[in-house]
Amino acid sequence: MKQQFFIAAFMSVVLLVAGCGKGVMESGDEAFQQQNYAEALKYYLEAAKEQPDNQALKEKIVLCFFREGESFYEKRQTVKAFEARVKSGLEYLPENPSPELLQATSEIHLKLAVAYKNTKGDNPFQQKKNFETALAYLEKALEFNPNNGEANQVMRQFKEENFMDIYEKGLAAYKKGAQDPLQYIAADHYLTNATFLDPTHSEAAKYLSLARQKALNILDPGLAVPIAVTDQMQNTDYVAFLIVVYNLLPEKLSVSAGNIYLVKKDGKEIRGKISNQFSTPLVDKTIANGEETAGVVAFPLPAEKNYARLEFRKNGKVLGYKNLP
Fold first, then answer.
1. Residues 209, 240: one domain?
2. Residue 258 pLDDT > 90
3. Distance between CA 156 and CA 153 in Å, rounded?
4. Residue 222 domain-assigned?
5. Do the beta carbons of residue 191 and residue 184 sit within 8 Å?
6. pTM of the entire structure?
7. What are phi and psi of 222, to 5 degrees?
8. Domain residues for 274?
9. Distance (Å, rounded) from C-alpha 300 to C-alpha 279?
């Protein structure tokens, strides 16, 4: 309810700024004030055709999508519909959002996080996905507003309620890895979440590094295009990895070094390439379902070696990844 009052108050301010023409805009404003968000959105999107660079108008569109998503969830408890409307709204987020919109965006991500936290999965895999999604949205809420007191409180609750359970599951999975190597992938998952909830826990950090080292050359069957790393090398110009790419998609998959990205801990990324400085490069190849290809992918040596993971991407979508120790 507090978020609704906040967004409504913010909208009242937005309606008074950035002069807008009469007609379509006024109709949209009136519909919004009546909480008819679908109708308001129709008018605002029509106005945007004539005013595509109007920041205040973009902010109104964003808020309409947010409020419509909230309404869907409150009436039907449909978290996917809620999420879809929020994502649609984010497409209109201005390059330099107002402080009020940043706050509203933080609040909506917090509400999404809580919605996923409260959504029960049909199976253990879905429960795991819901937890990860809730945590990701909670992190987003704090990105948009680090001073969001409610989001910080929910994060503390997440830690108190989940850290020890997740850490113990990660440790148990790591110890089972000697008999079942796929358990190292499970350990990576649990311990990644544990260290996110408590970055100061030295034992969690230690076993996460060990699990990732053990999981490097293991293909994750839970990914569409799992990748494995069997060797790493470096010279004065490049850092390179011998990578195996496996296709679990039903259709054929074209693979090249350019599909592989090295992502650093600061979020910066480097696209892979082949280099004649290394033998057995990952040459362009098309593989069918159940087939694999392997080769060396090189990356220009960055100044800081804070590598986070390797990703396989196709058309901008991450289909597989490997976390690095």
1. no
2. yes
3. 5
4. no
5. no
6. 0.68
7. -85, -5
8. 227-323
9. 16
Residues 42 and 169 in one domain: no
pLDDT in tens, 194-238: 998 888 999 999 999 999 999 999 999 999 999 999 999 999 899
Residue whose C-alpha is closest to residue 85's, from 98, 71, 75: 71
Tokens of residue 17, six digits: 């700024």
Q: Give me the residue label for tokens 């590598």.
A: 307
Judged by DSSP in three states, 72 sits in helix
State whether 65 and 132 are in the same domain: yes
DSSP 8-state symbol, 293: E
Q: Which has the closest alpha carbon to 297: 254, 240, 255, 259? A: 240
- Is there a domain that residue 221 lies in? no
108 with 19, same domain: the answer is yes
Given a contact cutoff of 8 angstroms between Cβ atoms, the answer to whether 211 and 292 are in contact is: no
Q: Long-range contacts for 90-93 (Cβ within 8 Å, ≥24 apart)? A: 90/62, 92/58, 92/61, 92/62, 92/65, 93/58, 93/62
- Residues 173, 261, single domain; the answer is no
Q: Which helix (H) or strand (E) holds 81?
A: helix 79-90
**Hey, how many other C-beta atoms are within 10 angstroms of the C-beta on 21?**
10
Q: Between 320 and 128, whose confidence is greater? A: 320
Tell me the one-letter amino acid at 295.
G
Q: What is the pLDDT of residue 1?
A: 47
Name the domain boundary from 126, 147, 168: 147
Residue 321 has pLDDT above 50, yes or no: yes
Dump pLDDT digits (tens) for 288-304.
999 999 999 999 987 77
In a domain, 103, yes or no: yes
Same-domain pairing of 180 and 142: no
